[in-house]
Specification:
Elements lengths: L6 H40 L2 E9 L5 E9 L7 E8 L11 E5 L4 E6 L4 E7 L5 E4 L2 E2 L2 E5 L1
Parallel strand pairs: 6-9
Antiparallel strand pairs: 1-2, 2-3, 3-4, 4-7, 5-6, 8-9
């Protein structure tokens, strides 16, 4: 005995199958867009931005003291840093380790005494230090 299939029955189910596949595709794209939006919002919330506030070149012009602020999300206080970096490359806080860092706003004034000594003055006078180093390579740091 052979099974017989009614000719119109399979063809009537075919449009329903196409509609179901289209609905599943739209739902999948919607879920992907929603997850992407959530990921983007979390990245923006958790990410930090660095803004260079000033730079002071050494007398020979090969390096500079870069003072920058790091702005993070609302749960992390803003912090200030200073780094010494070469002037022939764009400044990047990821490339040049900060020798000074503190967890509040203050004005950081830097000046060079020759090519191997940097004077740093904080107005108002510092405090809440994250990092406070006396030397960067062969460059001495004098805090005033």
């Amino acid at each position: 005995m052979t099974a017989s299939v009614e000719p119109g029955r399979w063809h009537s189910r075919r449009p329903l199958l196409r509609i179901a596949i289209a609905v599943l595709a739209v739902v999948g794209i919607g879920i992907t867009a929603l997850l992407g939006s959530i990921w983007y919002a979390l990245e923006q919330f958790a990410g930090c931005r660095s803004s260079v506030l000033s730079s002071t070149r050494s007398p020979d012009g090969t390096k500079a003291v870069f003072v920058f602020r790091q702005d993070c999300n609302a749960t992390v206080p803003d912090s200030m840093y200073a780094s010494i970096a070469p002037t022939d490359l764009p400044f990047s806080p990821n490339r040049s380790r900060a020798f000074l860092g503190f967890a509040r706003n203050a004005e950081v004034l830097s000046s060079w005494r020759g090519n191997d000594v940097v004077e740093i003055a904080l107005t108002p006078g510092g405090g809440d230090f994250i990092r406070h180093e006396a030397q960067v390579g062969d460059i001495r740091i004098d805090y005033k």
